Amino acid sequence: MDQLRRLLRSVFSSVRDLLPVVLVVAFFQIFVIQQPFPELDRILTGCLMVVIGLAIFVRGLEQGLFPIGESIAYAFARKANLRWLLVFAFALGFGTTIAEPALTAVADEAAQLAAEEGVIDIQPRALENYALGLRITVALSVGMAIMIGVYRIVRGWPIQYFIIGGYIGVVIMTAFAPPEIIGIAYDTGGVTTSTVTVPLVTALGVGLAESIRGRNPIIDGFGLIAFASLTPMIFVMGYGMIV
Amino acid sequence: MGIVTDLITTVLATITDVLPIAAIIFGFQRLVLHHPMPNLKSILIGFVYVLVGLTLFLAGLQEALFPIGRTMARQLTDPAFLSSIHVEAPALRHWHDYLWTYLFAGAMGFSTTIAEPSLIAVAIKAQQVSAGAIRIWGLRIAVAIGVSAGVTLGVFRIVTGTPLHYYIIAGYVVVIIQTLYAPRMIVALAYDSGGVTTSTVTVPLVTALGLGLASTIPGRSPLLDGFGLIAFASLFPIMSVICYAQLSAWWSRRNSNKEQSGDP
Question: What is the ipTM of this complex?
């Protein structure tokens, strides 16, 4: 009975989360474009799937991703093994990014663009190599970002110096990078952090800040995602300059 | 038939997303930490929930939202639609003739951010560790306003064809100035909300809008100008979240002053 009530409540809140999108789409379709909905039954099925999926995901978040991120953080803090913690952070950043589908899509598009601009040959092999190189570059940069971010949490350094330093890096690289890579580089910062990585990395950071004495989870625990979306911009522009 | 194929592709994509993470975590758990995980069974069930939930969520988006959103982005940027409002020749079209496109960009930016699962996750965590000083809905709405403003400005940039990096660098300067005056507890969270906003729901729709615009406006290259909207969508939430923190700090200060001075 209690389970059922919880389930109903989470389905209800998913409906509330999805409602704005549905309203916006309906408004534009009916009043601005003034056309009936194509395949309404398909849209309704899809919306139902989204609502149920979101409800189950949020449940899994609280039962799976948050606890695992925290327990890893506590275990590392208890062991007090900084070197392995940094290796873990790098592996997590690199491993989750290299397989990220959104990144693969952007990398393929970027390769196409580079070929059209005459930076590389228009041959499947050259395109593949360029796209793979780009993915490895981004994955390396996210690995570095999580590693540096974790080290910052352990030390308790204020985040703004890193971010401002990163911004300066982006601005300097923008001045030297070829123009066709800039838009893509700026966008890769946003695509690297997937729906599975974000909760896990957040739980890891907050868990570390909670278990290390003298750190405050709200001040020190956040910020890993920010690092992971800043470094790819710098690295990708660097990649554009080298290739 | 279509739904089944979509579901299978999405399951595979989600598994490739989750598998490396699971491998790294359990690998380190086993080889380095040698520490049995508490509640292993419950956590594994949680992972299955994440996998199933995310698959349904993504497949449902593919089914319902993405096709219609993409069509809509194309229709709203279509010269035929624009000339139905304004009869002028395309060459005489001004940036303010794209009013519906801006409204669509802003409304889409806001509403897709509210539905973004990773933002929900960060907001839950933030409320937990701030002991309620940061509210789930307050944070989510602040971020959504930021994304909305960012995407609208990004569309304006594509329409006018001004260089992307001017906007981004100006945005950085604003963020740095805001950081100097921001309450300390919000800074890291605000920076994080920049990266969080743009994952599953927002990116495909916003990218479709950018590419659609860049390919229909004369003189824009979809490859050079179509990108960059995501960058806007991840910069502006930083500003709006810092504003949110300053407003709520100001609000609670005002209330406590009132109580002290004995006003009703």
Answer: 0.87
